[in-house]
Amino acid sequence: MKNKMIITLLIACMLVQQTRAQGNGLAGIQEATQMITSYFDPATKLIYAIGAVVGLIGGVKVYNKFSSGDPDTSKTAASWFGACIFLIVAATILRSFFL
């Protein structure tokens, strides 16, 4: 009987401790949300910049293939153009989805 009472008191103390710790959780979640949303503007601009660099590199590669008379030019142009469009659309959709 005495062991059951001690175990019950220990469990009650643990439950009380958990309920006390939950009060600061909301403030922490709000702070984390604000920190993450503050990163979206720089991250979106970074992805746009990466898309621009990929577009420039792709343009040069397509121009080189076109100048050399390679018959595979349209396939290369489509793949590089698709990569640029994907980067821009992905950044825009992620921004609108999370903000």
UniProtKB/TrEMBL annotation:
Keyword Signal among record annotations: yes
Keyword annotations from UniProtKB, A to Z: Membrane, Signal, Transmembrane, Transmembrane helix
InterPro entries: DUF4134
Signal peptide segment: 1-21
Transmembrane region(s): 45-64, 76-98
Protein name, entry field: DUF4134 domain-containing protein
